[in-house]
Amino acid sequence: MIEIDSTSLLVTTDTDETIAQLEEQVLKEGFTLNYFTPPDNQDCLADALEERLPNLYGEAFGGIEELCAQVRWIHPSGEEYFNKLTPRSATGPSLKKFSIGSDQLLGTPIQATFRLFPRPRYHQYAIFSFPSTRASSSFKQWVYKGRLAIPLFVEISPSKVEDFLEKEKVNESFIGAAFWGEEKLVLAMINTLSESAHQKKGRHLEIGKKNQPEFLDMLRKTKESQLKKERKFSAAKEKGLQGLRQMLQRCS
């Protein structure tokens, strides 16, 4: 069951659908979820909600806890409950945010309502090339500090860059980016980034249309690898903190 509310920009669906299946349906109606779970978006919506699966485009559009507006859960006792539908700007704790990622602690998600975005008609892909890692790091810090909403923005190795830039001198450090949305906004974003890169002695290199699908796939895989490293680091950090807490408890 899929119901699309084009006025409120919401879609309600049963959670036995995969993310890819739901995306295919909303694309036909001129919308997108802007939610992608690696490696191929084939995760079931129920799993995405139970495990809070990360959104590859999260830096621009938020995680599943922001993209999901309402969830209907069924408790092992058979009782059903759901959170109040909240506006996009809502902040603070809520039943929805507590439930998403609870791994069936509060029950099983059976239905969900997701926010929709207009299907992007304009896409741009770029590589920002820098003479040193110091310059590229400064550029990344500027982007993160400004909280620029870039769907994909990742550091890429020179060996991967060579596949997409013919007859270009391979510098020391590269950052790949993918943009989509309204043409004016995308172009304004690219111009802003190009100016900043130039100030840091970097260059903006466009990706030809022929290479764009492969480039997007490469960015996704690179971002996925980055997310795995971050999760592994967070898990190790949490394990270390837990050990420290236990040691302090024994000493007290």
What fraction strand? Answer: 15-25%
- Biggest sheet strand order reads 1-2-6-4-5
| Count, helices | 9
Mean pLDDT: 87
Radius of gyration: 21 Å
Order of secondary-structure elements: EEHEHHHEEHEEEHEHEHEH
N→C terminal distance: 56 Å
Shape: globular
Parts with pLDDT < 50 across at least 5 consecutive residues: none
What structural category characterises the helix and strand content?
alpha+beta
Query: How many beta-strand elements?
Result: 11
Helix share, percent? 40-55%
Largest sheet: 5 strands, antiparallel
Features:
five-stranded antiparallel sheet, alpha+beta, 252 residues, 9 helices, globular, four-stranded antiparallel sheet, 41% helix
Question: What features would you describe in this structure?
Answer:
The chain is α+β, with helices and mostly antiparallel strands. 41% of the residues lie in helices and 23% in strands. It has nine helices and eleven strands. The chain has helices spanning 19-28, 45-51, 58-61, 64-67, 95-99, 133-145, 158-161, 183-199, 212-251, and strands at 2-5, 10-14, 31-32, 68-74, 80-82, 108-115, 117-118, 122-130, 152-156, 173-181, 203-206. The protein has a five-stranded antiparallel beta sheet. Strands 9-10-8-11 form a four-stranded antiparallel beta sheet, sandwiched between helices. It starts with a strand and ends with a helix. The mean pLDDT is 87.
